[in-house]
Amino acid sequence: MKELIQTIVKPLVDHPEDVQVTVNEEDEKTIYSLTVNKSDMGKVIGKQGRVAKAIRTVVYAAGSSQHKKIYLEISE
A GO molecular function for this record (predicted)? Predict the structure, then answer.
């Protein structure tokens, strides 16, 4: 899943070397924290959050086979 997020996000940003994904697994949920360069935040979020919503939709669909709730957090 971590590789999927990186594959989606790296072509969108100007600084792909700054893209980092960390995983925090708990009992019933998995939280993926996406960190990008401060100047790339607008590109990852998109107008009215459309790009971020699309990324989350793909991640949630890919993770539906797991029996855990998946969350994607985007931060600087």
Answer: RNA binding
